[in-house]
Amino acid sequence: MTLIDGKAIAARINEETRASVAALKARGITPGLAVVIVGDDPASHAYVRSKEKTARDIGMHSVKIELPRETTQEELLAQVRRLNADPLIHGILVQSPPPRHIDERVVIGSLDPRKDVDGFHPVNVAKVALGDPDAFVPCTPLGCQRLLLESGIQIAGADVVVLGRSMIVGKPLALLLMNKGRGGDATVTVAHSRTRDLAEVCRRADILVAAIGQPEFVKADMVREGAVVIDVGINRIADPSSPKGARLVGDVAFAEVAAKCSAITPVPGGVGPMTIAMLMHNTVLAAERIGK
Amino acid sequence: MTLIDGKAIAARINEETRASVAALKARGITPGLAVVIVGDDPASHAYVRSKEKTARDIGMHSVKIELPRETTQEELLAQVRRLNADPLIHGILVQSPPPRHIDERVVIGSLDPRKDVDGFHPVNVAKVALGDPDAFVPCTPLGCQRLLLESGIQIAGADVVVLGRSMIVGKPLALLLMNKGRGGDATVTVAHSRTRDLAEVCRRADILVAAIGQPEFVKADMVREGAVVIDVGINRIADPSSPKGARLVGDVAFAEVAAKCSAITPVPGGVGPMTIAMLMHNTVLAAERIGK
Predict the structure, then answer these.
(1) Do B196 and A157 touch (CB under 8 A)?
(2) How does pLDDT run across B93-151, given as a tens digit for each residue?
(3) Catalytic residue among A5, A116, A118, A251
(4) What architecture is domain B139-272?
(5) Which residue of B lies nearest to A128 if distances are taken between CA atoms?
(6) Closest Cα to residue A268, out of A237, A228, A234?
(7) Which of A103, A120, A124, A188 to mutate to test the interface with B (most CBs of B within 10 A)?
(8) Nearest to residue A278, comparing CAs of A115, A144, A134, A150?
(9) Across the interface, which of A126, A174, A204 has its CB nearest the CB of B122?
(10) How far apart are CA B115 and CA A18, in angstroms?
(11) What is the ipTM for the molecules in this complex?
(12) Which CATH number fits domain A28-127: 3.30.710.10, 3.30.300.130, 3.40.50.10860, 3.40.50.2300?
């Protein structure tokens, strides 16, 4: 059984991205990433810190804009417009979820699609669906695909089951893996809470991707012997034995599934670091495209 | 075995649409559909005639714009801009495919998304992916979904296999049937030319949709006993015994598959008439939305 070391793969990709950043700098362009966060959710702040730190580590211009919880939608949109117009910024990410009084769709729709490094602007959603190579692909599905490619796992012709149909992971990943060409050509099934006999459907998978946000939902009886398992879930569960009283687990019951599959991603240290690496990758792409 | 009579179902839906047209007219709004066709492909002209005739039959304002083969892209775009601005026109369709010197993506991108009754503008592609009820859904996949609904076939929880991953049918239909809510909640697999053991994948289907454009490709051994089969293909094949020397067949070997399945659409008279009925439906939707 192979443990797919997302942390190591992400570190290697970040080194490549660092080289791309240096090459851009030599041409007078410093890729710039702006992360906007509204409110004080601790988990969101932790994610934003990792993104900012990684961007800085690899030599990017990194801006964090922290806005108070009570920021109005109009104020946030004004901020986005400023960043759209800022020539030092090539990628803009508004950390999800914003407070409830803000309509996230409107905010995403206001981004310059050429700076939408998170890949959720309708222009990019459509490009992903069309298999357009100019798309900014959302970072988590892109990270999952890249993990498979970097691990030498055969995607073309494989039976892939994506568990979860969210717009953040499930649906874009399904489209990526079914599109024509490198990293695609898989036979993809999207399974979800309404799927009849979910265990049986999951057992068909050569590659099973769990993205349903339910701690340790995927058990050994849902996995075919020798399958590859990608665990997108990051769930915090109570654990009295831990110093913090809690620990992170994925959507997969790791120990029992690991004993059965041919390769698996751990949580943490699997998909998570790849998501950040793909954000950096997308920001360099944006700088290359805008800078031309 | 039930023959799903697309012609009869489409006629019933067109009667409903006729009533909606009358209701709009009573409010002073006559739904208007403009169909633009460039060049002289006979099949395209036949499609356009059916669309125009149906629109007129149900009381719409119907405009056909025929442009010569040598029309430039800029001329076509100017025509689209005129129609975008025309208050008598609520739906615009540019018949596919245009001549090779015209970039269809650019043309579709120039449509006012509120008049994009064919559902291929990126704004609508993204809305379909997001499951947004404000989307204009492409007419053929919408027609397939409606055929299933009108025939009382259980979609939620069903194993659906969509054979074909085109942006016109396969991918949008897969998204429609997997999205949450009425007409969705199916477990959808998209299979295609690179699928390993295609027959076995197809045999898993409670509902099999064939949309690959290959005459009589789906044989009896690819269909589970009692499955529902929707045939999207329209292929012209040589037939010396026919007065015209050719006849239309679907992507399904009808006779042998019909003997095995619980319900099937014929070609012609299955999905085809539904595509036109959905175009009329979308045009009324557009008039209702714009007219408000």
Answers:
(1) yes
(2) 999 999 999 999 999 999 999 999 999 999 999 999 999 999 999 999 999 999 999 99
(3) A118
(4) 3-Layer(aba) Sandwich (3.40)
(5) B126
(6) A234
(7) A188
(8) A144
(9) A126
(10) 45
(11) 0.94
(12) 3.40.50.10860
